[in-house]
Amino acid sequence: MKGAIPGLVCVLITANAAAEDAAIDFANKSRFVGEARQARTDTPLAPALPLTGFGRDRARLEHELRGKAGPISLMLTARLSGQEGARGSGLTVANEAYVDFGSGENRFSAGKKILSGDVGYAFRPIDVLQREVRLQALPSALEGIPSLIWERFSAETAWSLVWSNPGHGRRGDARDDGSLALRGYARWQGADLHGVVRSSSRYGSEFGAAMSAVPHESLEVHASFLVQRRGERLAPLAEPASIAQLLSPDQAVRTVKVGAPRKLLAGLTWTVESGWSVLAETWWDGTAPTAGDWSTLARQARQRSALLTLPGVPAAAVNGSIAAATRLFEAPSRTRRGQFVRLSWTDPAASGWSASFDVLRTPEEGGWVATAAVGWEADRLRVDAGLRRFGGRSDSAYRLMPERGVVFAGASLAF
Q1: Rounded Cα–Cα distance for residues 407 and 390 (Å)
Q2: How far apart are CA 88 and CA 74, in angstroms?
Q3: What are the tens digits of pLDDT across the range 212-254?
Q4: CB 333 within 8 A of CB 287
Q5: Helix, strand, or coil here: 146?
Q6: What is the pTM of this model?
Q7: How far apart are the first and last CA of the chain?
Q8: Quick one: which of 160, 187, 68 has its CA closest to 105?
Q9: How far apart are alpha carbons 75 and 248 in whole angstroms?
């Protein structure tokens, strides 16, 4: 099947190029992003700092090319990146590369395409295809998913049948799994309604829906939910654990099966004419680590450090196992419950200035993240800068993380 997809794309291009608009359109953008990160040394995970990327300054220079020629759409990113204490690296990514064709109410596409979709800001339960990581500071452009798509539109409805990662079974990451999904949209009595059904070998069947409505000119409300037949989450080493298990990097973090997990989100946005806006969201993620998982992670880190008092236990083994345990921070959601509030302002006089301040709380274990940012945008230039801090109770996820905060800044130029 892998070999068939490029051939299919070539056939479709040949058959449809004459019937499509042959206009060629290209756009370029260059961007520089720098991050000054501050390490946290008063956490049980601090011995792992030299073996991880936490607390290390980093920077990247990107050049993005977007183009469309008839039925073909392309987005490429060339990236040079560097991190304190490590050699720099270069990478070119095809974020999107697909052919789009069809007529009337039916459209088809084949290739690599960004497939984000949901109504939430900080958390997106029904984003089951792209699986975009939210709340990143100045993130790189998303990378699309190889897919074959059939879309059908009308004045009030739309639906799409998406075969993502054709020829793939279960892969290392859920976004790389092969799956078949049906996505729908309808406009009903002033509300936007979304639905998704997806089937994959990892999760079985997934069913979700979302809505967004504007009951008042200043107020928007939204909600989203997802039910999975089966799920999985990251968790620390099971207890009780032997010395050999504590020192094994491969066993530091495990994947735990979760039966019929749920994901729920509710939120609202209040906007006024003076340019101020308040966004508030709360959610539940049944596939995230629990408060007990983070307490266990802290306890096991202390146990590993205590092994240094035993004869014959090398410090490299202890620090390596603690570093391996930080993989728990790779979980898409750090805890099951989240509460997010964002206050933002955009100058109504169109001066280009904007500012925001937001706080993410994880009430289940008492952690928090606070971010303040400011931006300015002219015709083709945009400049951003901000500060993010992590904290909370001693055994909360954001307090355990061996990083205290980050100062970030970026500038982009379109031409």
Answers
A1: 12
A2: 26
A3: 999 999 999 999 999 999 999 999 999 999 999 999 999 999 9
A4: yes
A5: strand
A6: 0.91
A7: 39
A8: 160
A9: 42
